[in-house]
């Protein structure tokens, strides 16, 4: 990293993956300081033939909908498998395959980084606090070893009229699951309970998990709820209730898609001749030191929850309850309180929360937030100031844990977006880069990779918007390295 002391600007390498080689350019932005007010400017005005202007392909998770394995579970967060491939090409191409580099995703979601690493011949480890997402990752990682003969036999058994006629032995709806309107209409729920009656007969736990994830991925489609993108009732979104649906056909279609993809991944493994080993922990990465030896990670590619208050836990609440991954509202609250950055709802009523690290510009924004719409109490600036402080305190804890896990020369790629809260734009990417340097990591670059993303409807809602702000939401890749 070069530093231009006389001008007060930082100059970082711009790393550009191209066909068969890696080239470098430089870009400059002003460092964070009280008068900068977090308005660092990135000079990224160039392009590479055959690539996006910043060197990485579109990171949007939506691209995974057409990719084998990745398409199994819809997920609003995360990034595309193509983006992960670009990170591998850029940062791991020089590594000897005989040493099998270790790839980490501390916010694994439904396993995009982990699956791509496995198929690239790398060892990989992930952490995911949401039990449903962790289960999806686990199923993807273990799917190449599934006994397809047994799985197809289970599909045949599930198709039998006797099974689909209403046999729901041992199946009960989750006692503590509540929704404003019935989540399933009566005839739909009858079929759902029949499915769970059949699920109880599957002896092989890995095959049972295939069916569980198949159900979890399609259950909202035949429910009276919808993702808009947050989970909402269909009437609230202007859609009719679903009085009836062919639940069994929906689940079987998803399982058949999974079987096709498992065959494909086995062909890929045979073609490549080797495959990595993958692990997923349903744990908080910040509590991972006993599981992650110091200096064991060569590359981390991740996307932590954004500071947009999108409720990852509540939006998977139906899957969590119906798949018996939680059993009570108390379990749900514990997940919310342990989630990275918390949620506005969990910290808004607390006494004023301070930053646990130094950043004068961010402290100024937090102070300004506390004075915004004070008449609204916790629903105004004071509550949102607590949310912002909590989020960045967790960013600081994350960076410290990442520094422990990275090997010398190891790289971390963090996809993160800016936020607009109560009318204040917060450049989360630049603050994250500053935090990385404070904990002893080297900041290699901050690359703007997308200038339009989901989230505007959240940050501009009546409660959150405060004064008008014309800033654009964007995503960046914050690239750090352990010296």
Architecture overview:
The chain is 36% helix and 17% strand. The protein has 483 residues and is an alpha/beta fold. Strand 2 and strand 3 (21-29) form a beta hairpin. Helix 4 (148-159) runs antiparallel to helix 8 and helix 12 (360-370) packs antiparallel against helix 13. Residues 1-54 and 453-466 have low confidence and may be disordered. The strands form four sheets. It has a seven-stranded mixed β-sheet, sandwiched between helices. The chain has two domains: 51-129 and 278-316 and 325-482, Vaccinia Virus protein VP39 (Rossmann fold, 3-Layer(aba) Sandwich), CATH 3.40.50.150; 148-268, no CATH class. It is built from 15 helices and 14 strands.
Cα distance, first to last residue?
Answer: 11 Å
Estimated structural class: alpha/beta
Beta percentage is 15-25%
Tell me the number of strands: 14
Largest sheet: 7 strands, mixed
What is the CATH superfamily label of the largest domain?
Vaccinia Virus protein VP39
Can you tell me the CATH topology of the largest domain?
Answer: Rossmann fold
Structural domain tally: 2
Radius of gyration: 23 Å
CATH class of the largest domain: Alpha Beta
Number of helices: 15
Key structural traits:
2 domains, 3-stranded antiparallel sheet, Rossmann fold, alpha/beta, 7-stranded mixed sheet, 36% helix, 483 residues, globular, 14 strands, 15 helices
How do the helices and strands line up, and which of them pair or pack?
Blueprint: E1 2-4, E2 9-18, E3 21-29, H1 81-91, E4 102-105, H2 112-119, E5 123-127, H3 131-142, H4 148-159, H5 161-164, H6 186-199, H7 205-218, E6 225-227, E7 231-233, H8 247-272, E8 278-281, E9 297-302, H9 317-322, H10 329-338, H11 344-347, H12 360-370, H13 381-405, E10 406-417, E11 419-421, E12 424-426, H14 428-438, E13 441-450, H15 456-459, E14 475-482
Parallel strand pairs: 4-5, 4-9, 5-8, 9-10
Antiparallel strand pairs: 1-2, 2-3, 6-7, 10-14, 11-12, 13-14
Helix pairs in contact: 1-2, 3-7, 4-8, 7-8, 12-13, 13-14
